[in-house]
Amino acid sequence: MIEKNSMISPFRLLLILLGGLLLIFLIAPVAGMFFATPLSAIFETAQDTEVRDSIWLTLFTAMAATLFAAFGAVPLAYILARKDFHLKRLVLGIIDLPIVIPHSAAGIAILGFISRDTVVGKTASAFGIDLVGHPAGISIAMAFVSLPFLINSARDGFMSVPVRLENAALVLGASPFRVFFTVSLPLAWKNIVSGLIMMFARGMSEFGAIVIVAYHPMVTPVLIYERFGSFGLAYARPVAVIFILVSLLFFIILRLLARTKNA
Amino acid sequence: MLEVTKISKKAGNFALKDVSFDVPDRAYFVILGMSGAGKTMLLEIIAGLRKPDSGSVFFNGEDITRLKANKRGVGLVFQDNAIFPHMSVEKNIAYACYGRGFTKNEIRGRVLKWAEAMNIKDLLCRKPSGLSGGELRRVALARTLAMEPSVLLLDEPLSSLDVLIQYDMIRLLKKLKESGQTIIHVTHDYYEAYALADLLTIINSGSIEQTGPPAEVFRNPASRFVCALTGIRNFFTGIEISKAGELYRHKLPEDFEIYSSYQCATGTPVFIREEDVKILPSANFSGLNIFEGRVTDIIPSPDFFSVVVDAGVNFFARVPEEDMPGINIHTGNTVKIKISPEAVMPVGR
Q1: What is the pTM of this model?
Q2: Partner residues linked to B306 by β-bridges
Q3: What DSSP assignment string belongs to B291-309?
Q4: Is A178–B74 a contact, with Cβ atoms under 8 angstroms apart?
Q5: What is the pLDDT of residues A57-66, one digit of tens each?
Q6: SS3 at position A33
Q7: Each residue's pLDDT tens digit, B86-116
Q8: Which residue intervals of chain A are DSSP H helices?
Q9: With an 8 Å Cβ cutoff, are B78 and A164 in contact?
């Protein structure tokens, strides 16, 4: 009865109307793009090795960026969740920095950081790698802009683990190391996985920082931009559609995997 | 033997002050105090989860104050059990056994032993979610006992259990005590403490007020707080004490006088147990420590009534249910009460 009454309240109607408009705003451009792209063009583009290579490169570099970053990000998130220290707010601010600065500016900053005349660049050169224009450089740019998603999500996860449980494990004789791997990590796992997925997705979709650090080899977002610049909308569209489909597919698969793991 | 010596610890606007006590091997030691008295903090210091600001904890003569929690071998059962929600009951109980060089079979054996002792063998495969409060408490106990702790610390082990299960749990703890396990048990409940303790210590806002066998503490409460905690409500402080023959006269404010058989210094409070305040069957009595007053309240309990008599000061008298009809007590009636000088006891005698 209450349900029925609240359904027809003008306030609810207003909420639905406003929310609906916003949803249309989100869906319409993407849907429009799908409808404006002929199936034949999608199939043809899917055969294009340049497109395929760029998609593989994007997936690979984003995956690598996420996995490598996790080794530092998860411990950092744990410290941030558990310890109070001087300048903690500053550290939290720094972690959120990549979200607020323009990504082209982030690209410029990273380029200065990894170019051949810097310590990082020289070290990489010693191993025969020129980070600028290299998949490793792309991964670095992706990691830079997407790290906040992992750190913040993992931190939320660790904060939701009661300290009491860690204390209980300690008193039962477990070393802090074992407490972390048998209690803290498993209980924060859901948030960490969700953070990994977000970081991966954000890395895959990055354009601004990557286009400055490594125009070549081309990740798909750069390729879409290049096709648009050189050949126009009709040529950029099929690539965009395919990339969105691939991204969606990965997103759904990873989410499902995360869910079965927790169940 | 576990010795706690002069432990002090500040936390916010609360502090433990110079807390000292000894817990002999195989003793059942109960720390009794109101909530917020610092009982849990004390347990955490003994377990090694907090460092005291000053003072030491010794175990068998060895200073363990700086020893890490995971190296102490002291078991702590948390008030809310702190069961690992992502592990089965079996994995929870086995947790302390891993990394100690036991074989799989030995671990299984220990788990079964304690699951059986705690009567939770049929729960081993279950996940903690969905277990009842009593079951979770048993899992927490089994998990801690499986580490075979040198000292078992229990934080309010009977709280948040319903009354029927409380009795089972008391029996279980008694059995543990008989097995020779050294136990420190923290509670706010006097009856619980009395039922289990070999030794009782009473803590009030961060300080120990009295330590001793429960019967001794009950007989001779050392402070007003201990009186209140053990249910004594007749409590007076004389402004002048003088000898009167064999007895001692305590002068209370407003010219009220009461006689006691015991000598004590001026300013020492005295207490009278409710059962020692006798309501006389007729008004024809007079003499020493006989007072006339008006019944202002009658508070029923299952097998007695607490009768409040205003005789210049308020007295609480305990009247057994079967005596009530004989003495015709109603609120507003005037009655006479008699208190033996033997029953007027100075605090901390």
Answers
A1: 0.84
A2: B299, B318
A3: EEEEEEEEEE-SSEEEEEE
A4: no
A5: 999 999 999 9
A6: helix
A7: 999 999 999 999 888 889 999 999 999 999 9
A8: 2-7, 10-36, 39-47, 49-82, 88-100, 103-114, 119-126, 135-159, 163-171, 176-179, 185-204, 208-213, 220-231, 233-262
A9: yes
